[in-house]
Write a structure and sequence with these properties.
Structural class: alpha+beta
Radius of gyration: 19 Å
CATH topology: Nuclear Transport Factor 2, Chain: A
Number of strands: 4
Mean pLDDT: 79
Number of helices: 5
Strand content: 15-25%
Number of domains: 1
């Protein structure tokens, strides 16, 4: 009986048609490449977050739970360095940026470079200072969400 069960499990694992092609399955299985549609969706969420909320004037807190996984929100909360009230959402959104202040120019998104396995390098100017932050996008319930970041450490 055990051999039969093992055979069935093995067959089911290989017989699932195109399971790796769905966005959720790709991020769960850590696929090394994404479909063009997945890359486009990931690039769109990165552009939206950086242009409107990280480098722009939009309210990050209004979109944080829609754009970031609980794992990333915990990371951002754990790195929040200032006092906060119990139960208050406080996120170190500056982890997405260079950390420099009062630079010689504007803040703007420059380019997004896919690196594979859901990782993207995001290049930008932060108050005129050049920066690069690596972000990982995964799919949760069919939606791309920020799951990990590697902050710019150039300063």
């Amino acid at each position: 009986m055990n051999k039969l069960a093992l055979l069935l499990v093995t067959l089911m694992a290989f017989a699932t048609p195109k399971a790796y092609a769905t966005p959720e399955a790709c991020s769960i299985q850590n696929c090394l490449s994404q479909s063009p549609q997945q890359q486009e969706a990931c690039t769109a969420i990165i552009k939206d977050l950086y242009s409107n909320y990280i480098l722009g004037t939009g309210d990050f807190y209004a979109v944080a739970r829609k754009m970031c996984t609980p794992k990333l929100l915990k990371y951002l909360s754990d790195h929040y360095e200032y006092d906060k009230e119990p139960g208050q959402d406080c996120f170190a959104m500056w982890m997405f940026r260079t950390g420099y202040q009062d630079g010689p120019g504007a803040s703007k998104l420059l380019k997004i470079v896919p690196k594979g396995n859901g990782w993207f390098d995001v290049y930008y100017t932060d108050m005129g200072w050049n920066g690069k932050t690596s972000v990982r996008i995964i799919y949760v319930s069919g939606r791309p969400m920020f799951d990990e970041i590697i902050p710019d450490k150039s300063h």
